[in-house]
Amino acid sequence: MAEQKPKGGVTKTAKARLELLWTVLPKIPSVIRVVLLHVLKMSEPSRYLDLRENVIVAFLRSLLDQPKPQPISKTQRMTLRDPGIKGRIWVSKVSAQVPPEESIRDVLLAAIDSSKGQFVVADGICRVPDIIPVEAEWTGYRAHASPSSELPAIPEQQKYAEMMKECSSDVTILYFHGGAYYLMDPASHRPTTKRLAKMTGGRVYSVRYRLAPQDPFPSALLDAFVSYMTLLYPPPGAVHAAVDASKIVFSGDSAGGNLSLALLQTILEIRRRGLKVTWFGHEREVPLPAAVAANSPWLDIVQSMPSWMTNQKMRSGLPNHHGNTFFIDDDFLLHPLACLHLNASWEGAPPIYVCCGWECLADEDKWFVSKLVKDGVAVVFEEYEAMPHVFAAILEKAPQSARCFDGWAKFISQACGSPQEIRSSFTTIKAKTMKEVDINVKNLSPFTEEDLRKFAFDRVGRKSSFPNTPAKL
């Protein structure tokens, strides 16, 4: 059906194209400069990236470095547009019913309170979000469609049933999209979730969690928790059957990686305290998932570690918000369920996959991996030489991206199939040769736990109340 043109104006599609044009035009001189420096081999990225990759990264960085900051609402609105669903993909849009009890929120708030330690301002009070129905997209690979195929005009439940006919494994990925906690949507991440579904033979439950600044911490974490319980214990009217925790992997990129790990740490804290959730009239356990697979996870919310300055040339995805205070109240900026690298322990966690490039958050990711090893957690770490933030999603045709998706998907499949065979490994993938080189995990991060606390407290302008002696967090 043709799009109707409003009475004295242009269509929404035309308006969107004009906005995009006015965004792109001012960037042309900087793109030309990047091309010239690349051809003359006068820029550092030209040593590692091909011309196409270099231009894409530079263009995305220029969008983030606006000389005149755009209103958050405008930027957010542009990233929430649904481009439509075409091609080899099944999408079934659902909205899970929430329980009549408030237990899930009470348990979450209890975990937040018991894990805050000395990281939260003494009289800081956590916001209490509403419990709301959480929308999500069941995503699967549609093998026999063409690139231009549209979804059939059938009910969402039937779309889900058709998707399930094409699943060849029992892998279920609980996916949280990136976007610095205030941008993006499951719709923007369909290429990623479709690819993971295809490579694992499973399905993806991609969550439309609440965004800041409208709904700051812990709204997104509550939505993630509700979504996990929805998979485990389907509410009335759900299209899916109960999913065993051993077949669920939390996954996400950037802020979504933060959210997947925050949900894991929340569950660890709930289990430490022996808490249960009353869910639709039944007292339910909160089991651990099979694993967590995080792509360039953003752990240091206040952006305090050195690589936030030293790796600016490879920044492509995260704006520098100097604390991102619209995501979380100032008193809670350093809470370990937001700044995940400040957590005391990950002991008892299931296997975890982490990948990153040479990006602003490389220091925090490497520190996190070394912490997991100390806490006895099986961890697979892949570092991609010279690659920018979440490169696998933005450089879709790069060989490094294919290798990244391969490692990411294989880990997920193994976690749901033979988790006992997962062995910790630490690897660098070279940029041009794709050669894989083992990393000595003992040399992965030069920082101590005391260094981390000092970086974080200095960043937010607070004095640490911890003793000035090395100690476990």
Keywords:
473 residues, alpha/beta, Rossmann fold, 2 domains, 10-stranded mixed sheet, two-stranded antiparallel sheet, 14 helices, 34% helix, globular, disordered C terminus
What's the arrangement of secondary structure elements?
Layout: H1 12-24, H2 28-39, H3 51-64, H4 72-79, E1 89-96, H5 103-114, E2 134-141, H6 156-165, E3 172-176, H7 190-200, E4 203-207, H8 219-232, E5 248-253, H9 255-272, E6 277-279, E7 282-284, E8 291-295, H10 307-310, E9 352-356, H11 362-374, E10 379-384, H12 391-394, H13 399-417, E11 425-429, E12 436-438, H14 449-459
Parallel strand pairs: 3-4, 3-5, 5-8, 8-9, 9-10, 10-11
Antiparallel strand pairs: 1-2, 2-4, 6-7, 11-12
Helix pairs in contact: 2-3, 5-9, 7-13, 8-9
Describe the structure.
It holds the Pfam family Abhydrolase_3. It comes from Apiospora rasikravindrae. Keywords: Hydrolase. It is a single chain. The protein is α/β, with parallel strands linked by helices. It folds into 2 domains: 19-63, no CATH class; 89-459, Alpha/Beta hydrolase fold, catalytic domain (Rossmann fold). It is 34% helix and 13% strand. It has 14 helices and 12 strands. A 10-stranded mixed β-sheet has the order 1-2-4-3-5-8-9-10-11-12, sandwiched between helices. Strands 6-7 form a two-stranded antiparallel sheet. Helix 10 (307-310) links the parallel strand 8 (291-295) and strand 9 (352-356). Helix 7 (190-200) packs across helix 13. It is globular. The N and C termini lie far apart (59 Å). Mean pLDDT is 89; it is low at 469-473.
